[in-house]
Specification:
The complex is a heterodimer. Helix content of chain A is 31%, strand content 18%. Chain A is α+β, with helices and mostly antiparallel strands. Chain A has one domain: Glutaredoxin. Chain A has a 7-stranded mixed sheet, covered by helices on one side. In chain A, strand 1 and strand 2 (42-44) form a beta hairpin. The radius of gyration of chain A is 18 Å and the shape is globular. In chain B, strand 20 (297-300) and strand 21 (303-308) form a beta hairpin. Chain B is elongated, with a radius of gyration of 37 Å. Chain B is α+β, with helices and mostly antiparallel strands. Chain B is built from 18 helices and 29 strands. Classes of the chains: A alpha+beta, B alpha+beta.
Chain lengths: 204, 775
Amino acid sequence: MSVSRFALGGLAALTIAGPAAAAPVVGAAAPAFSAVDADGRARSLAEFKGRTVVLEWTNGGCPYVQKHYRSGTMQALQKAAASDGVVWLTLISSAPGKQGYVAPGDEARAWKASTGAGSAELLLDPAGKVGRAYEAKTTPHMYVVDKAGTLVYMGGVDDRPVADPASLKGATNYVAAALSDLKAGRKVATAMSKPYGCSIKYAE
Amino acid sequence: MMAPWASESRRFAFHAPRPNMPPTACAGVLERDGFKWIPVEAPVTLYTLGDRPFPVQMSPSEPERVWVRVMRVLAGLAAVLLLAAPAAAAPVNTGHLTAELVAQSQGIAPGQTIHVALRQKIQQGWHTYWRNAGDSGEPTRIVWTLPPGWKAGAFVWPAPHRQPTGPLMNYGYTGEVLLPMTLTAPSDARPGETAQLKVAASFLVCEEICVPEDAVLDLALPVTAAPAPADARWGGPITQALAAAPGPAGLAAAFGRAGDAVTLAVAGPALKGADVADAYFFPYDGTQFDHAKPQPIERGPQGLTLTLTPGFAFKQAPGPSEVAGVLAIGDKAYEVTAAPGPAPPGAAGLGPPPARVAAPAAPDLGLVLAALFAFGGGLILNLMPCVFPILAMKAAALAGHAHTGSEARRQGLAFGAGVLATFLALAGLLIALKAGGAAIGWGFQLQSPPVVAGLALLMLAVALNLSGVFEVGQSLQGAGAGLAARSGLAGAFFTGALAVLVAAPCTAPFMAPALGWALTQGAAASLAVFAALGLGFAAPFVAAAFAPALLSRLPRPGPWMDVLRKVLAFPMYGTAAWLAWVLTVQAGDMALARVLAAGVALALAAWLLGLAQRRWAQGLRPFAVAAAGVVLGVAAVGAVLWPGYGAPPSAAAGGAQANVPYEAYSPARVAAARAAGKAVFVNFTAAWCVTCQVNERVAFASRGVAEAFRRTGAVYLKADWTRKDAVIAAELARHGRAGVPLYLVYGARGGEGVILPQILTEGLVVRALEDAQGR
């Protein structure tokens, strides 16, 4: 009995250690993933190889996301990025039945229209597989992948970890900074920051 | 402390009257708390998402700004009205919590510093955040509006709670929380006036969803000539919150990298002997560590070392120069500030604390299962070598009544009652002693030399009685049948009591988990398990007394009974000899001399008593002889019950008894051997534990086991519990055991401790050692 209990303990330790091995590392290859888009088609990171990719975790009900969307700053950044040829993928990892869940089809298509987002795609990750692979914690939580597929930024949108829209004034937007560093061929100056916002409503 | 923009807007959460209500601009006021009007500077939009309403803030349009100005005027009017009311802090309900500003004292003297506190009463199921919110969320923030010259300090944050959600970890508060801070009045404050203090507080309140809520809180505080008395309602709670807040407590701390991990070592007298199994470090800086990862613990003699998963602050050069935060251990919390460097002494070396939930099998037992185990253990106890002589003696008595059924039944019941009463009394004593903080376990009554010596004399007296040296009961009284029957019943009762006293250390295999479980439960559950044990122990004897078929098979009373009685005296002499040996192990050879001398004196006393009894039977009056016997007997008993026993013979911390060399157990020795990559076999034993002694002879003395120890290089440690030992008792308790034996085998490659069965064989030990070599 004792032996099997210890064996179980060992198994549990292995399970816990599992995801840690796949933790995203700045300077290493961004974890590959696939997720469905608003129309329910499977999309993957691999298809954007050779282009700079921004990953943005979002949740329309989160006050921190609203800070960036209601003010229009997120949409402006998305459009500027698009005009530079950057692929902007917005992800939703809320599980079905959890706050912020968006189903593929009309609901997902309506998201883009209602927010006026300039993202290339809205990707849906109801099982949380992509979110967990990237250890995405909050909405918003941002990642930038360069043309070689290397993760060059992960963290918050900016340096003001509050929900108050007034905080946007004078904030340093880390994603904008990373994109302009990449555009200029420089090393990304701020490659990591603490993400802030609401917790991602993962499946239990 | 607080960003300047935070006071610029206030947001309020409220629920939509109907689901799917379209976004509605509703700049204006919210009515709540009766007739109070609260201004909203920025308009609030109700935005529904699914069926959950969300407050969403929008940039005000021009007409809305006009609205806002109108509302500000109204708010100003409301403020004036409020100020006209008696000066008191009014709680504000922001939606999911009620906030108010409260003071430690009824007033403040010029130049004095007192504490005030932001009180949050949070709706059930919702929480607010600590200074480091963890993976998501936002700490509570405030901005003061104070009269000129007044100063307020930062929050004294109480220790937070962990709030895991899915793969994330947050730190915060639920229920009611006080965030104290200092408030200093200027030296030119005028006594008699009332200071109007104002705080704009912003909270992020979360359940599954998060809602930012704000409140403007007022406190009218009278300025007094001298320091004012404590506030009747809040003086106590604020003082308590300050006392409970994490403080430095003189702990030394250092951190260092260990491969991919960061170790945080903390040590100091405050941690000496602390149960650190649930220790947790809450970092102040949210970028230093991965909040959601477990924090493996290594214990030290007066501290601990946590292995933390670094956050991105450690992944960037040059990395943090300081790690600071709160170390929570049980209901205590300490402020820890660590610099890079070697670990302070005493912070490691004792291995990980055994997991409270996973390691012991015992706590998983339910009451019914524990009682069943106890009943089975009680049954087996009848066959134990230390119990058998007593039962044999009783069997002789029962055989004497074999042909009077009712008498046999009464004797059986009296025996059962004696067993039960003694088990319950011992359990009660054990519970009471444990409640008093004593580190004791089952069999504890044999850990005291006077008790062992006293029992040895009692066994000798019983044996002498069986041998016919003297008589007890009717022959002495020489009286009628009624009295004889009564004393016979009392005899049966005390036989039961005696059987329990000597049986207790023979912890039968089934009993260990049950007793271990019982002693960790409440008193009622403990007593129930002990009662089940007693029932199991008494069951065979009582059943026999109630089975006429069984009794009728016994031969009729006759001279053979006297022969049986004298034969059965010898197991009792054996028990007395065994107890004398236990005493030697406990208290050295001087104690042996003492108990042997007392034994001889007792035997002489018994013989004198017997002589007096025989003369009495002849019609003589042998008072002098009887008195001499009684005095001698009392002196013998007194001589062994007198405390003042010596220390156990020092085994020079090791020895080579039998074939396997062993060392004395200590947690540090275990840790050292494991660190050196050796398998460790720990034998928790006691001289009075018969199962342990049988295992010593059967398993450990065998050539195969000695050979296996040599081959595997395993370290053999003995934890001798013959005398009281708090360290050993604690280690037994960690493995869910209340007594010995316990055999633990740690793997050579860091494998966890495996518990072996209580009855060992040579093959079992050899296999365990070979297995330990490879894990």
